[in-house]
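WARN no homologs supplied; continuing
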Amino acid sequence: MVATTLFGFEEIVAGELRQLGAENVEILNRAVKFSGDKAMLYKSNLHLRTALKVLKPISQFMIRDNMDLYKKIRRIEWDQYLSVDGTLAIDATVNGDFFTHSQFVALKAKDAIVDQFRDKYERRPSIDLENPDLRINLHINERACTVSLDSSGASLGKRGYRKAQSLAPMSEVLAAGIIALSGWDKQRNIVDPMCGSGTFSIEAAMIACNMAPGRLRHFGFEKWTDFDAKLLESLKKEADSAIVAPACKIYGSDIDSRSVEIAKSNAENANVGKYIEYKLMDFLDSDIKASNSVIFLNPPYGERLKEREEIIPFYQQIGTQLKHHYENCEAWIISGNIEALKFIGLRPSRKIRLFNGPIECKLQKYELFRGKKGGDQNPANTKFKSE
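OK structure emitted
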């Protein structure tokens, strides 16, 4: 099987898989290969926080041209996986100089599958792009083609709790991955002071509670011909029995009242509302005194703050607020505005390259210890290690 993920999260996914008991774990580019039985397929969908999809390869072959692709897709015995009355969808990705149009590749594969059914049964499955009985993943790298069944269906980042969202919310997978990269021990308090839809605080609460991220949703494999409902139900019960109360406090706030209400509603949907304290508060104006906490920030990148003279002072104020109100804390800030990050005014002890959707970002860690500038007690004033 293959678990796909975001750039920079491969090691995290590999660790999650090993913890679940997966075998032959191998890190790829934005993906992790592993092996296991049907229970492992179900568990990986249910428990992986930083994966996007879990794919089950069923055929691999080399292709010369479009007709060769059609013929080799058609050779696969598709009625093992789909009934003639079922529905299908095909996602294709291409990388190389010969096959360059993913939509054309998907169309060619669809033709091969439905033509096979038509020849056998004089009928064919229908196409359903939104909620198919079988979602097929086609990956072509140069002339090497891998055909996989998508066991997840919708992205695993769609946990099921975010019924409403603020403008440009962070993905659940990105938030969970950043929390994992921070090395948070589940003991220190969490502060999410620009909470938006509440993704950082909710993902942190679910981690602190040892709550399976997929417990509220359905998966693509539930429509497969070999689906074992009793097995999935037993794995869900096992996961729910492992839920615990968090050993830390989690705080979220935002300057926008609607965002706070959305975050509260989403937290309730995720069954962690009682563990998160949300407030209507301007992070830059608050006189809160936090200590020994971990702060996660995803400030605006500048798309809505049109002028440069607005975004630079904004980031300067973030740095000032952290310095004066978050003693003995560590702050993790992700931003797609690399230039503005330079004006935080604190030296990062760690830098990590990530992507928020198509936007290249930097995730930076700031250690906020009390001490005079240049003194031995202030790591924020020491040289950072780039990673």
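The chain has two domains: 2-150, 172-209+246-386.
OK
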